[in-house]
Amino acid sequence: MTSELGVGRPTKRRPGAAVGGLPVADSRPVLDRSADGGDAVLGVRCTACRYPAAQTGIPWCPACYGPVAPERFAATGTAWSSTVVAIRVGQRRPPFGLAYLDLDDGPRVLVHLAEPVVVPIGTRLRITGTDDGDLLAEAS
Question: What sequence ranges are listed for the domain ChsH2 C-terminal OB-fold (predicted)?
């Protein structure tokens, strides 16, 4: 017997618009490039508990379900963890580096590293752009 759970409903694997429903939000952080060099990661911050989230278009705080307001977060931070991936993932060819970056004034985001190296915890990184929709960072 097969399960009917989720059949025909929007999921991350089956975007809502493709099955006639509402579009599913892209959870990847967005880099806002300004002409004056003040790059920022777009997101929201809860007006009740101040929780930061690097995702736009969410209707409430993921921590307390309070109201959220748009926010711009710094494009710099410290590496929380990193790794080098040695297998092919989608269109990405190995090796490539990934790191979790704690933004200076905001949330933790996943970034692709400019070089496929493991960076030590606490290394200062700067988001320099995007690569196929994913944030790209390098040591600053």
Answer: 74-128
Parallel, antiparallel, or unpaired for β 68-74 and 52-53? Answer: unpaired
pLDDT tens digits for range 106-136: 999 999 999 999 999 999 999 999 988 899 9
Residue 53: is its pLDDT beyond 80?
Answer: yes
26 within 8 A of 16, measured Cβ to Cβ: no
Q: Do residues 127 and 138 lie in contact, with contact meaning Cβ atoms separated by under 8 Å?
A: no
User: End-to-end distance of the chain based on CA atoms, in angstroms?
Assistant: 55
Mean pLDDT across 62-84: 95
CA–CA separation, 100 and 11 (whole Å): 25
pTM of the model: 0.79
Which residues, in sequence order, are bridge partners of residue 78?
102, 124
